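Example noted here:
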Amino acid sequence: MRVQALRGWGYPVIGMTVAVVTCAAVAGCGSSSAPDVPLAAAAPADLLLTPDDLPGGFAPTQLSVTDLVAGNRGPIESATSAEVTPPECRPTADAALNPELDKSDSAVLAARSESASLVELVTTVRRDIESDIRVTTGRCATTTTLIGTGNLRGTRIVTRYTELPDPDLGDRSSALEQSLVLRSSVTTTLPDGAAMTQEGFAGYAIVGRPGGGSLTVQLTVAGDTPPAAMPPAVPPAPMSDAAFGDLFDDAVSAAAS
């Protein structure tokens, strides 16, 4: 189920476009013409998960908002020339969100385990979750992306999305304006026929703050991609659906507190 009771309007490291182009899982926007939400009383950096909140085996790593934006820029640009089937399933949220992020309105937490990466983003910029819903559910629950330019020309990427339950905020459920939680499986087939599969999760939420204002909370966990092979190895998911759900619950609750 998705929360549909919006306040104002709707909304995956960022997420979907970057994930597809770099063979990563959905990691995770508002239309670039939409206004930013009002600043909350607490700074985004104060509302991130703490290192103690991380799952067992994960340790914090260095990643700044500037690093995040710069790292996303190339994959987002590459995605604009890719052929997506069905055509209405082309992701647009990341391209709208990425240029709006900077250290004055956003904060990032990154972590690594032996076999996965984790990134949380909290920002006053509103993500277009409605767009994410359109390009990951229904007819778009399975998409095929064909890379037409660059050194990955001819590469085919099949992404399968599974929608997971919304965050559970208990008696603070009214703070959750909209959300989308996904598990993804991304299989990339290179021009020579070798392939690789990556498993991951992404959660996106718009959260109302006490006293007014809203925040976007994004959490992505991506398993490492094994070497390309014929047939491809199928790696285990970086965590269970339940474990990711619990972690996203914690992230959204922290931002709403």
Observations:
- The longest strand covers residues 176-189.
- Strands lie at 59-61, 83-85, 106-112, 116-123, 142-146, 156-164, 176-189, 195-208, 214-223.
- Residues 1-14, 20-40 have pLDDT under 50 and may be disordered.
